[in-house]
Amino acid sequence: MELKTSRLDLTPLDPEEHADALHAAYGDPVVMSWWTRPATATEAETRQLLAADAAQPGAALWAIRRAGDPAAIGMAGLLGGTAIPGLSWILAESEWGHGFATEAASAIVEHAFGAAGHDRVEAWVESTNTRSIAVCRKIGLTERGRLAQRYEHRDRPHEMIVLGRARHPEPTSVLHLEPVLPVTDVAATTELLRAALAGRVSFSAGEPPEVAGMVFGPWSAGPSVQFVRKPRGECAPVVLTLDVVAGFDELYAAVTAAGTAGVEPPVREPWGRREFAFRLPEGHRIVVSTPG
């Protein structure tokens, strides 16, 4: 099904027909610096990439063309093989700055909620990709969460923002999930994690503290944990995992310098993560994890 906007024609993607023109985007390292894969070396490689993406279950992809112009300047669509349809687009660098990505993405969202009958769409955008974040916001996608990611051609992990939109406005029933750990000494535990993981006490009640909250990050809300004072016999050990993007090695050095107990050195896990761990006095195991 062809889609049209005031300036664009969106034609169902044909890897054989469109690969040559789209190689201007897929073969450009600047454009592909935001992509999940490195730039393609040849038009044949671009054709293979497009064919693989188009073959994913549920994929609906279009070549972007200026109205009346047969040459493709980019690709946009809904990715296949995802639980929620994933909005995606790419444009040749020469076409940036004209609003084409916003125009194409808006048409695809309208199609998703109309003819395609989807209830939701979402886009995963790197936190430093301000152009794509702006596109998402212009077409009504809002932030739904964040996660650490690392693509094989990147030399370090990066932060991804998950932005989404529902066909009908819907409240988010769970805004935040906060674990509560029983500890014998709330003040000592918060001080330990302040030194080891740069945590910040968000509230504390009692003298000595009976309960306290700790936030990891500089903002008023974010990843957090509560501590409540209990007798040692009521402090059954649990495992708490912290997912980090930057500063993994520095955090390990800080944990070691803080004199924490049971420090386990960094290892590369079979599931593609680098992790180290340490224990609180009650036996709680804190795992710090980053994409490997």
TrEMBL record:
InterPro entries, per database record: Acyl_CoA_acyltransferase, Glyas_Bleomycin-R_OHBP_Dase, Glyas_Fos-R_dOase_dom, GNAT_dom, N-acetyltransferase, VOC_core
Entry-linked Pfam families: Acetyltransf_3 (PF13302), Glyoxalase (PF00903)
Lineage top rank: taxon: Bacteria
UniProt domain VOC: residue ranges: 173-291
Residue ranges of every copy of the N-acetyltransferase domain listed in the record: 8-168
UniProt xrefs under Gene3D superfamilies: 2,3-Dihydroxybiphenyl 1,2-Dioxygenase, domain 1, 3.40.630.30
Name under which the protein is recorded: GNAT family N-acetyltransferase
Species this protein is from: Amycolatopsis rubida
